[in-house]
């Protein structure tokens, strides 16, 4: 019955457009991750330099999400998305025709962040069409556009191998972003109930609230873990298990699929059973899987562990953004940018952490143990804060849907 109500509400063409925009943007955002092993043949790098290369697009996305979040609030998420896609063409052209040194490649990597910033426009565009009881699923479907990572991990190295050049991958990526821009322009619509633009003082007010930083911390772990691993696993499989670039990217694809397609599942389950309850299980599951990966078991076992771990992180993304609109319904545009930026920062730190610890110790065990500890600490924080949330959110709304049970 609830599923029928969801599909009868909202605006399906806009939901589809938001998904497409996020999907193709995510594909471009993580372009360098799978290609890093191939790029290293032209520009030799140590473990930290490789980690920095794949982390820079995430950093750029984190910073620019604040910009696109502000624009989505003031000029509308549709126009913001159009601007984002047009701007994304710049690093693609530069990567195709301009790069002749590692320093130049770093610049391109940072500019790719504008594609990652699509989150700040795509999610408000979709969510503003739906009521609170359906926003977990709506934002989960739009957010499942992170499945664009699958396209990159599956095809980027194959295309580079076929043409004998990784640069041509950047050039070919221009085609789908242009196609999606046209579809997005034709199909997407801003919600007629879109909130009025917020005053700049409201940004400061939101940032002064404790819950803002708690959501940032939670998303830093779930989304940061997902996108950071999505960018780094090809390097991990190549270095630890000696796999070829294509083979390493294939196994990364398998793991990324879990995180991508379970995001809407996390939103749906949170709608049904309560966001904090589901998120507790997901953090615990991710922590257990990452601790097991730290033992560096045989390849088939580590792939299964990473699949389940990424599934927990991906579903956790949906759970976090099932909670955010309940607490900050009138500031969802602002919060999407702020919380999304925090998630990007987590994704930026993760490859650097793994790369630095591997360079220092010669093993990936300390890095994955550190990631596991972070997930377990999130369980403890959530267990404490949900008690306060249950009381305060219920008293504000008086509705059962507001209780993060």
What's the gist of this structure?
With 405 residues, this protein is an all-alpha fold. Helix content is 83%, strand content 0%. Helix 3 (32-42) runs parallel beside helix 10 and helix 4 (47-75) packs antiparallel against helix 14 (210-241).
At the fourth level of CATH, the homologous superfamily is MFS general substrate transporter like domains
Give me the secondary-structure category. Answer: mainly alpha
Q: Low-confidence runs (pLDDT<50, min 5 residues)?
A: 394-405
Order of helices and strands: HHHHHHHHHHHHHHHHHHHH
Number of domains: 1
Radius of gyration: 20 Å
Mind describing the biggest β-sheet?
Answer: none
CATH architecture verdict: Up-down Bundle
Give the N-terminus to C-terminus distance in angstroms: 22 Å
Task: Count every beta strand, where a strand is a DSSP E run of 2 or more residues.
Answer: 0
Could you name the CATH class? Mainly Alpha
Query: How many DSSP H or I helices?
Result: 20
Work out the strand percent: under 5%
Please state the overall shape, judged from the principal axes of the Cα atoms.
Answer: globular
Fraction of helical residues: over 70%
């Amino acid at each position: 019955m609830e599923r029928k109500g969801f599909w009868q509400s909202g605006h399906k063409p806009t939901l589809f457009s938001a998904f497409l925009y996020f999907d193709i943007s995510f594909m471009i955002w993580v372009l360098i991750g799978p290609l890093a092993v191939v790029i290293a043949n032209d520009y030799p790098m140590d473990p930290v330099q490789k980690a920095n290369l794949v982390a820079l697009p995430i950093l750029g996305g984190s910073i620019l999400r604040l910009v696109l979040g502000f624009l989505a609030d003031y000029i509308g998420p549709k126009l913001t998305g159009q601007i984002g896609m047009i701007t994304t063409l710049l690093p693609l052209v530069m990567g195709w025709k301009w790069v002749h040194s590692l320093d130049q490649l770093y610049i391109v990597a940072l500019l790719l962040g504008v594609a990652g910033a699509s989150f700040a426009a795509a999610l408000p565009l979709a969510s503003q069409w739906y009521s609170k009881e359906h926003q977990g699923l709506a934002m989960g479907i739009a957010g499942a556009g992170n499945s664009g990572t699958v396209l990159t991990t599956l095809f980027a190295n194959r295309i580079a191998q076929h043409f004998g050049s990784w640069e041509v991958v950047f050039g070919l990526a221009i085609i789908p972003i242009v196609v999606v821009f046209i579809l997005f322009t034709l199909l997407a619509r801003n919600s007629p109930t879109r909130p009025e633009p917020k005053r700049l003082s409201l940004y400061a007010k939101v940032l002064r609230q404790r819950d803002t930083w708690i959501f940032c911390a939670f998303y830093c772990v779930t989304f940061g873990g997902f996108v950071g691993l999505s960018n780094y696993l090809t390097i991990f499989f190549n270095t630890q298990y000696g796999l070829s670039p294509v083979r390493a990217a294939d196994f990364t694809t398998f793991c990324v699929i879990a995180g991508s397609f379970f995001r809407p599942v996390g939103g749906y389950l949170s709608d049904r059973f309560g966001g904090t309850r589901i998120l507790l299980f997901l953090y615990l599951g991710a922590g257990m899987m990452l601790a097991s990966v730290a033992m560096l078991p045989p390849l088939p076992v580590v792939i299964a562990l990473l699949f389940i771990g990424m599934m927990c992180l991906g579903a956790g993304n949906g759970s976090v953004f099932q909670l955010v609109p309940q607490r900050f319904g009138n500031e969802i545009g602002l919060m999407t940018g702020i919380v999304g930026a925090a998630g990007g920062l987590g994704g930026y730190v993760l490859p650097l952490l793994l790369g630095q610890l591997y360079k220092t110790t010669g093993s990936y065990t300390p890095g994955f143990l550190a990631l596991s500890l972070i997930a377990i600490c999130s369980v403890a924080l959530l267990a404490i804060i949900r008690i306060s949330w249950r009381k305060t959110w219920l008293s504000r709304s008086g509705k059962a849907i507001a209780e993060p049970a």
